[in-house]
Amino acid sequence: MNSARFDNILRQVLIVPIFAVLLGAAGLYWQIHDANRTVGFIQAADDRITHTLFVERLILDQETGLRGYQTTNDDQFLDPYYTADKQLDLAFFKLSNFYAIGTPQRTLADHFITTHNAWEQGFAVPLIATMRAGGHTNDPDLNVQGKHEMDAVRLDAAALTRADQASRDAAISHWKTQVRHMETALGLSAVFVGLIIGLYTRVLIHDISEAFKRSNHILRKRAEEAFRAEQRLRTTLASIGDGVITCDPTGLIQTINPVAQELTGWAEAEAHNQPLEHVFRIINETTREPVENPVTKVGRLKTVVGLANHTLLIRKDGTEICIDDSGAPIRDKQGELIGIVLVFRDVTISRKSQAALLANEKLAVAGRLAATIAHEIHNPLDSVSNLLFLMDGESTPAESAAFLQLAKQEVSRVTQISRAMLSLYRESRAPVPIDLKELLESILLLMNGRLANLQVTVTPDLPANLIVQGFPAELRQVFTNLISNAAEAASPSGHVHLTAEPEPAYPTPDSLRTQDGVLITVEDDGPGIDAETRARLFQPFFTTKGEQGTGLGLWVSRGILTKHGATINLASSTDSDDHGTTVTVFLATNPTIQVGGD
C-alpha cells in the first residue's frame, strides 16, 4: 500500500469519526443546555420556597412581638414586630416578582400578601393603638379574629409553598427524563461512532472497545469504592463509642451520630441545621460560666483544639454530664475550611473513678501512718503515767514540780502529733498561704516512729518564711508519699536529705517557671531506680512494693502538683559508687490553681 492510499485511509478513518463525534457533541450540547435550563427552574423553585419561608419567619416575628406586647404592655417587645415590618414590604415585593402575572402562583402570592395586610391592618395595628391609648385587648372575640386571620396567612403561605414544591418536583422529574435521554443519546452515539470506525479497521474498533470497557470498569469500580467508603464512614460514625457532630463553617449541625444523640438528648432530625451552641451547651464545672463554642475556637485557631478540664454538657432535658472533647477543621483539597468535626465522650464515671482512687490513696497514706502515730502517742502517755505515779509517791515539792513540767512536755507532744494528723484531712475550700517549713516539719513529726523503725536518718534543711499558696492537706499527702518512698528506698541504715530553697523565675519557652517559687528536694542514698522502671513510675497501679503498695502514690501526687501549677522531676542512679534517687518539686509562690481539679 502506497503512502497516498495509506494517507487517504487515515483521512477517512479520522474525518468520518470526527464528523460523527461532532454531530453527537452538538446533540449532547443541546441536551445539556436543555438540562441546565431545567436545573435553573429547580433552583428558581428552591429560591421561591426559601424566600416564602423567610417571609413566614418575618410574619412569625411580628406575631411573637405583638403577643409579647399584648401580654406585658412593654414597648420593647414590639422590636421584633417593627424589625420584621421594615423588611416585609421589600420581601413581599420580591415574592411577587418571582411569578409572572396571571400564573396560579402569582395569584396565590397576591392573596398571601392581601391576607397578611388584612391581619396587620385589621388586627395588629388597631391592637397596638388600643393598648397605647390605655384600652384593653382581652376581648376573646377580638383575639379569636386575630387568630383566624393569622391562620389564613399561614394557610396561604403553605399553599404557595406547596405550589412551588409541585413545580419543583415536576422540574426534577423532567430533569431525570432528560438525563435518561442524554444517557440514551450517549449510548447511541457511541454505537454509531463504533460502527463507522469498524467499517475501516477492526483493530481500531477493538482497541476503542477495550478502552471503553476499561474506562467503564474503572468508573464503576470508583463508584463502588466511593459507595463503600461512604457506607464505612456511616457505619463507623454509628458504631464509634464517642459522640461525633459535624458542622458547616458557620456552626450549623450537619450530622450527629447515635452516641452524640444520646449524650445531648437531641435526635438527629431535631439537631440538623441547628446552631451548635443550641444543641451542644457547655459550661465550666466550677465557675458555671459558658465555655467558648468549639466551632468558634476551631475557626479562630484553624487547628485541632480540646476543651478545658471540668467541662459540663447540659443535655436537652437539663441534666448535666462531665465530658472531654476535641474539635478539628475539615478542609478541601485547596485547604479551605469546609466544616468542623467535634468528638466528645462522657467522662462522668471516669471522673468518679479517679476521685475514688484519690480517696483510696489518701486512706492508704493514713493507714501507713496509723501504727506509727499510735506508737508515737503511746510513748509520751506512758511517760505521763509514770510521772504521775512518782508525784503520787513520797516526792519533794521540787521533785513534783519537775515531774509536772516533764508531764506537760509529754502532753504537748501528744497534742502536736494529733494536730498534725488532723491536718492531713482538714482541707480549706480555697487556696491559703502555706509555710513550707511548718508543713514539712509536721510531716516528719508524724513519720518519726516509722523512720526509726526503718533505721533511716532524715536531715532537714528548711529555712523559714518559704510561703506558697495552695491546699495544705493535698501538699501534705504529696510530701508524705515522697518522704515515705525515699525512706523505704534508703532503709536500712540509710539517709534522706530534705531541703527547701527559694527558686527565682526562669521564663523560657520550654519552662513553666514563669514566677518565683520554692524548690523542694527529697534525696535518698538507696540503690536507685533503673531506666525501665523510671519510665513507668507515674503510671497508675504500677508499684515496686508488691502487695504493700497501691501503685497510686506518685500518680496521685503528680495530679495534685499539676493542679497546683507545680512540676515534679525524678533523677536516679544505680551506679555502685554513686547510687540513689533525687525527686525535685517546684511550687510557684502564687500559682493559678485549678480549683476542683483532679
Description:
The mean pLDDT is 79. With 598 residues, this protein is α+β, with helices and mostly antiparallel strands. Helix 1 packs parallel to helix 3, helix 4 packs antiparallel against helix 5 and helix 11 (397-423) packs across helix 12. A hairpin with a 5-residue loop joins strand 5 and strand 6. The protein folds into three domains: 3-200, Four Helix Bundle (Hemerythrin (Met), subunit A) (Up-down Bundle), CATH 1.20.120.1730; 242-346, PAS domain (Beta-Lactamase, 2-Layer Sandwich), CATH 3.30.450; 353-588, 2-Layer Sandwich (Heat Shock Protein 90). 61% of the residues lie in helices and 15% in strands. The chain has helices at residues 3-72, 79-97, 104-132, 140-200, 202-239, 258-264, 268-271, 276-279, 294-301, 348-392, 397-423, 436-446, 448-453, 472-490, 531-534, 553-563; strands spanning 243-247, 253-256, 281-284, 305-306, 311-314, 320-331, 337-346, 432-435, 457-461, 467-470, 495-503, 517-524, 567-574, 579-588. Strands 1, 2, 3, 4, 5, 6 and 7 form a seven-stranded antiparallel beta sheet that branches. The protein has a five-stranded mixed beta sheet with strand order 9-11-12-14-13, covered by helices on one side. The longest helix has 70 residues, at 3-72. Residues 307-359 form the PAC domain. It is an enzyme of class 2 (transferase). It holds the Pfam family HisKA.
